[in-house]
Amino acid sequence: MSHPASATAKALWSKACPPLSGDIRVPGDKSVSHRALMFGALAIGETVVEGLLEGEDVLRTAAAMKQLGASVERRDDGTWVLHGRGVGGLTEPADVLDMGNAGTGARLLMGLLASHPFTAVLTGDASLRSRPMARVTTPLAQMGATFTGRSGGRLPMAVTGTETPVPISYTLPVASAQVKSAILLAGLNTPGETTVTEPEPTRDHTELMLRAFGADVRVQDRADGSRVITLTGQPELTGRHIVVPSDPSSAAFPVAAALIVPGSHITVRGVGMNPLRTGLYTTLREMGADLTVTNERVEGGEPVADLIVKQGPLKGVSVPAERAPSMIDEYPILSVVAAFASGETRMNGLAELRVKESDRLSLMANGLAACGVTVRVEGDDLIVTGTGTAPKGGQNIAVNLDHRIGMSFLVLGMASQEAVGIDDESAIGTSFPGFSALMTGLGARFSGMEG
Ligand code: S3P
């Protein structure tokens, strides 16, 4: 489905630039930021969040938690302070909860609301209103919640939580941390044990952070690679200090740019290295990338490291479908890097890419082809064949309200023969505020005009 650019749409062009150099830090992790706000809103006492991503998506979650009765304030020093309502203590919002572009915000919130006995209405932008919600409403209805939405189970949707939620044991039909988290969050205000089985492990920020707030969350890894997560309901969560690591999904853009712009050498500091998020970095190393992970440490309970990246020759690889959950948001930028590698890069098992902020599989395939890249889609696989030289470029791409599509094509333009444009720079603010300034500081040449 195509969506018109936002009312504030501003075109941005990117053209071939000199070698990138610099020492940077990218903004905070989006997944961790959403969860920090939600759990802080449920905890007793004060939660202080350092390094919160102040992107549009996360600000929507902050606003929603306020509408649900929590105290959420930004201090002048950039930290965020929450005073929560206690598990089960959220209150009926007086108005619609507008989650903007945020699939994570919307789906996790639906989980929270499922076990609170009042009705709330959720909506979002044209992208979010087109995304499937049945994946969360199906298990949450089994717990007792009621959902009234548009056809196909889409937003706007009224969620009526139940006063008497029942715990469920649910096996995820798709590898989705959002679905897992929605069920666990509903399970917080549910007596008894809520269990989620995931055939392939997905990002575990919910489990790690809930435990840190004081919940009893048990995780069992099975011999067949599946994982079983069990939450004991109605814990008392206690406010805490959270340090949000830099987002590895955002770091992917300057890292990719440094790998393809000739002569580049950059350092990206403090990047989250949760092993369920780092599939891209594994893949890039298999492609021969000069990528050093150094200064590995633990900050605020999450592993982080500094990344040193140098441009050099890359070769095509086959990315196994099992790796998809650990790099699901990174396929758009990987497909750009693959366009500069020698030979075929086959990205297997990308069905989930079709239901992100846009149909990323089609948008990347079509956009890359328009830019002169040899690319094809076979079923759910994306295959990019690079020649080891710069593709032509020279296109203005409609990003369809998708931040990662926008950033990916701007990175492509940084090393292609002709400038590449995007129709809506403002979309990038959902996950990476300050992207243009940061990239320009490294050497990127972005401007409002073509050429
Ligand atoms: C997220 C999970 C992923 C990812 C999204 C953030 C999360 O979505 O694409 O950007 O924070 O749980 P799915 O759960 O749909 O795979």
Question: How would you describe this structure in keywords?
Answer:
451 residues, UDP-n-acetylglucosamine1-carboxyvinyl-transferase, Chain, alpha/beta, binds shikimate-3-phosphate, 12 helices, four-stranded mixed sheet
Roughly what fraction of the amino acids lie in strands?
A: 25-35%
How many helical elements? 12
| Alpha-beta classification | alpha/beta
CATH class of the largest domain: Alpha Beta
| The CATH architecture of the largest domain | Alpha-beta prism
Strand tally: 24
Q: Low-confidence parts lasting 5 or more residues at pLDDT below 50?
A: none
Helix content: 25-40%
**Distinct ligands:** shikimate-3-phosphate
Rg over alpha carbons:
21 Å
Q: What's the N-to-C terminus distance?
A: 30 Å
How many individual domains?
2
Strand order in the sheet with the most strands: 22-23-1-24
The average pLDDT value, as a whole number, equals 97
* Global shape: globular
- The biggest beta sheet, please? 4 strands, mixed
By CATH, the superfamily of the largest domain comes out as Enolpyruvate transferase domain
- Give the CATH topology of the largest domain: UDP-n-acetylglucosamine1-carboxyvinyl-transferase, Chain
GO biological process, one term: amino acid biosynthetic process
Subcellular location: Cytoplasm
Subunit structure: Monomer.
Pathway: Metabolic intermediate biosynthesis; chorismate biosynthesis; chorismate from D-erythrose 4-phosphate and phosphoenolpyruvate: step 6/7
